[in-house]
TrEMBL record:
Signal found in the keyword field: yes
InterPro entries: Adhesion/Biosynth-related, FAS1_dom_sf, FAS1_domain
Biased composition (Low complexity): 24-40
Signal peptide positions (record): 1-21
Any single Gene Ontology cellular-component annotation: extracellular space
UniProt keyword terms in alphabetical order: Signal
SMART domains from the UniProt entry: FAS1 (SM00554)
Keyword Signal part of the UniProt annotation: yes
Annotated segments matching region Disordered: 24-48
UniProt-recorded name of the protein: Uncaracterized surface protein containing fasciclin (FAS1) repeats
Top-rank taxon: Bacteria
Domain FAS1: 51-182
Length: 185
């Protein structure tokens, strides 16, 4: 019986090796040349059925067009569409308009990308902190390495003094809409 198994294995091995009759050099030459294209990130995944992620929620808001343009200019779309979880403090267009004239236009220039990334990453915490959990003198370490201070003004949750206008859950975290742009020290 043992010799039958050995014989069957030998026959199977012989068949497998004899089936590959191609010359490896011919195969390599016959393969068409293709240009390398950069792979799209998580933001390229099409999914119309799941709950929207933080970027998709912001992109669907007329009050966050400046923030979305900044996230795109900073190259952070793919990072923020990943699984997270994230707490994003999302300034409104009005908050950006309250900055000194020319600030936003200057930050959106390619040469200011690192400054823009630093500011935007100061608006992101890795983890989910719902507004109900805000407490006076609570601090969070932000993605850029800075810290923000959470607090309460009466029943109104705040971050570095900016008021939380609304909180919107997303598939990969939560967005707290704020009335000011947070600037790192």
């Amino acid at each position: 019986m043992k010799s039958l198994h050995v014989a069957l294995i030998a026959i199977a091995f012989g068949l497998m090796t004899s089936c590959n009759t191609e010359n490896p050099q011919e195969t390599a030459q016959a393969a068409p040349e293709t240009e390398a294209t950069p792979a799209a990130g998580q933001s390229a995944v099409a999914d119309d059925q799941s709950q929207q992620n933080v970027v998709q929620v912001a992109a669907g808001s007329q009050d966050h067009t400046t923030l979305v343009a900044a996230v795109k200019a900073a190259g952070l779309v793919d990072a923020l569409t990943n699984a997270g979880p994230f707490t994003v403090f999302a300034p409104t267009n009005a908050a950006f308009e309250a900055l000194p004239a020319g600030t936003v236009d200057g930050l959106l220039k390619p040469e200011s990308r690192s400054d823009l990334r630093n500011i935007l990453q100061y608006h992101v915490y890795v983890g989910v902190i719902p507004a109900e959990r805000f407490d006076d003198d609570m601090t969070l370490g932000q993605v850029n390495g800075g810290r923000v201070k959470l607090g309460l003004e009466g029943d109104q949750p705040t971050v570095n003094g900016a008021k939380i206008i609304a909180s919107i859950p997303a598939s990969n975290g939560i967005i707290h809409v704020i009335d000011q742009v947070l600037l790192p020290e």
